[in-house]
Amino acid sequence: MNKNNTLSMNPSFLVSGGVFLLIFAVVHFLFAGLIRPAAEKVMATVGTASLSSIWVILKDIEQQVCISLMLFCIFLMVYKLWKLLDEEEIYSRDLLPEHDKDTPLDVDKALNELSSSSYSDTPAYSTWINCIRRYKNTQNVQHAADAIHASVENIAAQLESGNNVIRYIIWAIPSIGFVGTVRGIGAALAQADAALDGDIAGMTASLGVAFNSTLVALFISLILMLLMHLLNGRQDTMVIRTQESCEHHLLSHLHH
């Protein structure tokens, strides 16, 4: 796993692409085999009263796309959260516990230990490595402390950048819902003549498409925005704990 991919907490392109295609395929078969047949059955049975049925509300293509994107977005956020939880323990501990803080730090030995760790690409270890390298080059603790702040800011920026796909999906879902609204209103207007003649069933069904797509899209957006805020909170906590760990433990090793 490369460093940038770790810091952004993103799955690889192949994993993301495979999950994306799998989700869209499963949702398609679910709609084709269950939701749309159930909606048609309800509509044939109860007529216009069927517009309040959950099957009818979900049956259109816009809702199918929104639900597929929602599941993919949740996958990305759960993956990031799993990475955070998996590495949570290292954010607050001393990464060089075998080194006595009362004696000068063996810089080369410390760098070798940190670089050879299985967690060497994580934000905490990367920050420690960058700081110790700066200290090795300058022999100045203040320069090492400056490296901590620079590394932490870089981690925060990479985490923020790694959420771009999620933010785009959250933005795109309401837009897809509005596409369904425009499509439904357009179809309803095309049946205005029939409605003037007393047949309002077609116009009612088209307006149902318009409002249902927006309803589903906005409801999904509310859920995803909540999850996004929770993820951002976890990421911010990780960045803060990484900085505190460096300032509390790492600088103690460098002061002698």
From TrEMBL:
> What keywords are assigned to this protein?
Cell membrane, Membrane, Protein transport, Transmembrane, Transmembrane helix, Transport
One of this protein's GO BP terms?
Answer: protein import
Q: Where are the transmembrane segments?
A: 12-35, 64-82, 168-189, 209-231
Domain named MotA/TolQ/ExbB proton channel: which ranges?
A: 136-241
Question: Which InterPro entries does the UniProt record give?
Answer: ExbB/TolQ_transport, MotA_ExbB_proton_chnl
Tell me if NADP is a UniProt keyword of this record: no
Q: What's its membrane topology?
A: Multi-pass membrane protein
| Chief subcellular location | membrane
Q: Name one GO cellular component term.
A: plasma membrane
Transcription: is it a keyword of this entry?
no
**Pfam family for this entry, one:** MotA_ExbB
Annotated coiled-coil segments of the chain: none
Q: Where in the cell is it found?
A: Cell membrane; Membrane
For this chain, the family text in UniProt reads: Belongs to the exbB/tolQ family.
Identify this protein by name.
Answer: Biopolymer transporter ExbB
Q: What is the lineage of its organism?
A: Bacteria, Pseudomonadati, Pseudomonadota, Gammaproteobacteria, Alteromonadales
